[in-house]
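Per reviewer request, we include the raw input and output of the structure prediction for the construct analysed in the revised manuscript.
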Amino acid sequence: MTLPRRLAVVDLETTGAHPVRDRITEIAIVLLEDGREVERWSSLVRPGVAIPALIQKFTGITDAMVADAPVFSELADTVLALLDDAVFVAHNARFDYGFLKTAFAALDKPFDAAVLCTVKLSRALYPEHHRHGLDALIERHHLQCSARHRAMGDAEALSQFLARIRDAFPADTLENAVARAMKQPARPQGLPEGVLEGIPDSPGVYFFYGENDLPLYIGKSKRMRARVMSHFAATRLSGKEADMARQVRRVEWEQTAGELGALLLEACLVKHDTPLHNRQLRKNDEVFGLRLLPSNKRKATVLERVPLTEGDPRGWADVHGAFRTRKEADNLLRELAYLYQLCPRRLGLDSGRSGACMAHQMKRCAGVCAGKETPAEHDARLAGALAGKGLKPWPWSGPVLVSEHDPATGLAAFHLLDAWCYLATEDTAEAARARCDTATYAFDLDIYRLLLRWFDAPAHRQAVCLAAD
């Protein structure tokens, strides 16, 4: 055997990417037996909902075109008859299969079929190539497509691809590739068919839900579909991740124009929704820095804690460090005390009240506590030790814009940033600049660290422009 004897090459156009929430607008089926086309059929479908403008532009199928088309219930028996006893073939097949399975289920019509995905088939046969979308296959194999992003045009192109590979490989190679391409991906038991395949493989944030509307987990990725599927891969599942996978009943997503937008959106949403299975980026109201207080008293503690969360960093020139816990701050101060012979008591690390501190007795403190140096001398050394421990200076003279654009989706975003604070995201530069005068500066330690890593890449810094320009 090479390819299965009876194949139904299917392509759908839809109002969106979610097989439960969105609807079918066009169906095409090309039947192949022993490599020969024996029948073809297609129809527009009235979805019963408005087709989003972006989808109309992408497919060319408008609300007016489907206004008088049959609804799916009028086509269901014809579609079932065409698919009967055939292997269901499609590009990213579980997506199309999931839409049809959901549509049949709404009519209480059972539908099951063996599924062959031509994306997986192409990957198995041509591992040297990185791109396996339909556009890539059309270009690589010189396929003819009468109407790209229309159901019959795309189904015709897939039929030609199957004809190309039928005689291009030894039977055992093709048989092994078909077996891999027909393997069903791992998915949570309660998740509807086709949901994972409907997730765009583009930048964005994804959400796992259980039985209610509180997210179990929020994540981000430059390639959402691949990342989400990796969560449920059998080889990865263990412990807490396996427990989460068992709870997932619904997956949603929000596309962004680029990676930075996904990072910022994830950080904000995790703090707002506090999902059960997110361990990082959770809200922490206790972040603080340290400020050196002037004091001529020998025994006085000279450091005060300054709350940082949701504060304005533009007034923090004399604030050092950013700590989530007292332990983090104390560990730094102990290190500085050891390196610069500072007094633990004056740093607030030693609760002793009289006489020389233990560190001085061990010759690790220069002796401000024993009158061996003045408080001014000690504090000058402390100020020098703390000098490099504050927030890094903002590299620009004021608010900046970082622009992102995803050519595959057409999404554009302009992120307004200043003093390590995330101020706003807008669709246009003009709208983002208009937010400068009204934006609220609210420091967030996770955003600060995120932006530090982002701007560490020279290419990312080159994409920055001053908002005032």
